[in-house]
Design goal:
129 residues, alpha/beta, 27% helix
Length: 129
């Protein structure tokens, strides 16, 4: 038996860069295939441009009606970890065994306890225009 195969064994995690509709669908497909997926998005939310549209071309379908169920499914999938306000900083390694460094911008909100009630905005010392 060749012990060299153990050193070359691939790790079962995947990084998807970009949380637009294509990145979300890729993350869902990979997660549903059994991979742990890290979905990295530069902005504060996933969905990309499609989440901002009213209708899609050429059918005129409701963009929100298409993208919303995918965003909910992505957020609820236990195999997907969404990293918003994050950017891929560096990649090292070889195919199947990459190590990445992710730069995560501060959110100034504790994501674990935030329930989006808005109470913190009332007492925030920074003016918002």
């Amino acid at each position: 038996m060749n012990n060299n195969n153990n050193n070359n064994k691939k790790i079962g995690a995947v990084l998807v860069e970009g949380g637009g509709i294509a990145g979300v669908q890729a993350a869902l497909d990979l997660a549903n295939s059994g991979f742990k997926v890290y979905l990295i998005e530069r902005s504060g939310a996933i969905g990309g441009m499609m989440a901002q549209l009213d209708k899609t071309f050429p059918t005129g379908d409701c963009a929100t009606c298409i993208v919303s169920p995918k965003l909910v499914e992505c957020a609820r999938n236990l195999n997907i970890e969404i990293l918003t306000l994050s950017e891929l900083y560096s990649i090292e390694g070889e195919p199947g065994r990459f190590t990445v460094t992710v730069k995560k911008s501060p959110r100034y909100v504790d994501e674990k306890i935030c329930n989006a009630c808005g109470d913190c905005t009332a007492v925030c010392p920074v003016a918002h225009f």
